[in-house]
């Protein structure tokens, strides 16, 4: 079947953008916002229309999903619905709506629920700033059945946590087994929805990130034998 030309202005920007990806960028190809601007000169929302294609099943990765991409690069991974065809520009029921997105961000304190970083905050040991998005997290319920729930996560944790499944029953069982002091400590953390890490805990985390030779130096300073 012959595709319409992506240069046909009567189609509308989103349909033209979809065809441009298929005909010019091609699946697996990369592009930048500047490429979009050059392809659609004078159309201020062209890049937004490209992003809108994700609502129709199009897979377009950024450096958040594909670490091999540069900050400005995007990759056209897979085509979704052929939105240029009549009746095809219909959003899937699995799409996260703007209302769901806002509600999830508000409920989760507009921060990453995995690492606690907030939008625009710089990641430790890098110049990269955090972006908070909505991820789908599998949760095993009390009856053993799994469901998918929405959670706010940063671009780093979202990519690394795709295969994770939370276990609500295991968490509740662990809570029940806590002693009085531990239970109150956890209660305080949950009530505040945050906790401070001690100097020892921070050093432990830094130690765990060191390569083996450097870890041995730390062990030596503590009077321990090499690992």
UniProtKB/TrEMBL annotation:
It comes from the Bacteria. This is HNH endonuclease. It comes from Streptomyces silvae.
């Amino acid at each position: 079947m012959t595709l319409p030309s992506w240069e046909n202005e009567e189609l509308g920007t989103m349909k033209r953008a979809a065809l441009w990806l298929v005909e010019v960028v091609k699946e697996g190809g990369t592009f930048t916002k500047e490429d979009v601007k050059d392809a659609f000169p004078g159309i201020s929302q062209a890049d937004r229309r490209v992003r809108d294609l994700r609502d129709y099943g199009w897979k377009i990765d950024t450096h958040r999903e594909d670490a091999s991409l540069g900050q400005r690069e995007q990759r056209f991974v897979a085509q979704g619905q052929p939105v240029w065809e009549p009746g095809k520009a219909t959003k899937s029921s699995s799409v996260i709506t703007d209302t769901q997105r806002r509600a999830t961000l508000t409920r989760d304190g507009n921060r990453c629920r995995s690492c606690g970083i907030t939008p625009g905050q710089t990641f430790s040991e890098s110049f990269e700033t955090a972006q908070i998005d909505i991820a789908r997290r599998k949760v095993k319920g009390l009856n053993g059945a799994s469901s998918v729930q929405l959670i706010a996560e940063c671009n780093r944790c979202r990519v690394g946590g795709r295969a994770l499944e939370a276990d609500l029953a295991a968490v509740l069982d662990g809570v029940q087994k806590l002693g009085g002091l531990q239970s109150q400590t956890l209660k305080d953390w949950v009530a505040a929805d945050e906790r401070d890490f001690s100097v020892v805990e921070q050093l432990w985390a830094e130690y765990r990130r060191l390569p083996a030779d450097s870890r041995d130096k730390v062990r030596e300073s503590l009077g321990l034998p090499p690992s």
